[in-house]
């Protein structure tokens, strides 16, 4: 009996280790590579051989990487802020106000997110050009909202529907306007959902590549993913793997930190919808 | 019908004292409804409601679920719009006035406290929005908290409170607004039985203290009977009867009102009128036997089919077949201080229930029973009661 239990436990942990290995190894190997220079890069090592931080310095020295990061931060935070604001106000209408065509509208919003990025790329390009936003960061923010808004609206609408109606009515009796109800009564209760959707939107915007590549032209307006992809070495034939790895590690860390900070909130945001009065 | 008395244009907006009582005199009309109706799409929920609720009155809306009592309350609150007719408060037409401008406060069934605010902030929220000056707001909150004995809870969050405490906070939130009218939507139905009884008396005490008009919705007839100055019995969207509890109990105007109040329910038997006197009517029951009722005939004729109603506590039961009305004892439920006897009569629809102190016969035996003429109600074919003699 005990042998069977032990074997089962052993299998379980073996599986856990396999999953951890599968998810973490690429990142681990990136860290390893980022610490190597020159020809060391092409030898396969599974443990750190040298601790050379040269790549981390040269990324900033040889490339406009600091500008790239700053651009990414601006674009991602603006996208999150705008998506949450629009998502929240839209969710209030979609969840709380009865009007004709409400479910059709919701389905349309969901439908938007079903198009592959490539499909909307050329249309989007025209739009951004005509708005004069080509090679400007606001153009990217506008483009990113195409995939952040649908799920933001959906998650927030679902969440807001779960809030008891009497709460809203109590606020109405207290003389609260719709805006007050949204900001002072509903929003404080929706932090888990806001954090979850906000973080997902942030990750999506932070990592986005295709739009960023298409809608920017100069290095001054590029975001991190494009910046990394377009990094060039000393000669055109050399791909600067060390720099690329160092840059990748650095831009992943903020995400990891954010997720760790908001980890609890995310879990409760994804599972719990109901609010106990 | 109650007299219309719209105490014209009593501007009570600012003059509400600490007792919360508006400047309208007690006894004047506070809430006046004329032909009020409400429909959602094609579903008619309420039709032609005429009510006038007096200032300072504790008025209870009672009825089975789906009768429209909550909707009627929400119409007064302004949470639903009136589809037809007029609703006025203190002589001002309120049909299109915003809920917060009506001088009312509402206590919800689920309390509806703001979960992220402390008790103090819950009480302060409405005052802040209403731009009540801070010192004044604080004074009102402290006073309400003292009145409801929740002073030591002011810094807690709703989730740290018990059901009864939450209910007090919800009531406190209403009190601090110093409304002209309190609206209660089944406020006690989420509480356990013991707490309900104590909150009931507490609410009655509160009403005596504040002397404010209160409108209270419940499906619990005990709450209605014990708390109300006047009861509105609602059924399928219309008012069956509006009057003081004992009047409704002793002189129900319709079969529905008669059957709704009282536990166990009033007994009903069908029959035909055989004799019409000056102040009495004799009915031959379909199941056999005659009953004399002390009611004014009011145009009822010999031969009319009627329903006779009598309350279980008014039956006089003797053992054995003494002629007159007889029945077989089917079941005796002994409740300690009294017993409920289930009596079966041949050919009679339903059972007759009797509430007795001493059980004169055991199960299976035959008994005779009598209904005192003064306690006997007669309802015509439309379900309307014939007027009582007294």
Outline:
The complex is a heterodimer of chains A (277) and B (390). Chain A has helices spanning 2-34, 54-62, 65-96, 102-112, 117-130, 137-162, 165-173, 178-189, 191-207, 210-215, 224-229, 241-271. Chain A is mostly helical and 277 residues long.
Q: From the coordinates shown, what is the CATH architecture of the domain at 64-229 and 246-271 in chain A?
A: Orthogonal Bundle
**What is the molecular shape of chain B?**
elongated
Number of strands of chain A: 0
H/I helix tally of chain A: 12
Beta content of chain A:
under 5%
Overall mean pLDDT of chain A stands at 86
Q: Helicity level of chain B, as a percent range?
A: 10-25%
Rg measurement of chain A, Å: 23 Å
Q: How many E-type strands of chain B?
A: 20
Shape of chain A: globular
Helix and strand arrangement:
The complex is a heterodimer of chains A (277) and B (390).
Chain A: H1 2-34, H2 54-62, H3 65-96, H4 102-112, H5 117-130, H6 137-162, H7 165-173, H8 178-189, H9 191-207, H10 210-215, H11 224-229, H12 241-271
Helix pairs in contact in A: 1-12, 2-12, 3-6, 3-9, 4-6, 6-9, 7-8, 9-12
Chain B: E1 29-40, E2 43-54, E3 58-62, H1 69-77, E4 84-89, E5 92-93, E6 104-107, H2 119-129, H3 134-148, H4 163-176, E7 181-185, H5 193-210, E8 213-218, H6 221-227, E9 230-235, E10 238-243, H7 245-250, H8 255-260, E11 267-276, E12 281-285, E13 290-293, E14 305-310, E15 316-319, E16 325-334, E17 339-344, E18 352-356, E19 366-370, E20 377-379
Parallel strand pairs in B: 3-8, 3-9, 6-7, 7-8
Antiparallel strand pairs in B: 1-2, 1-4, 4-5, 9-10, 11-12, 11-14, 12-13, 14-20, 15-19, 16-17, 16-19, 17-18
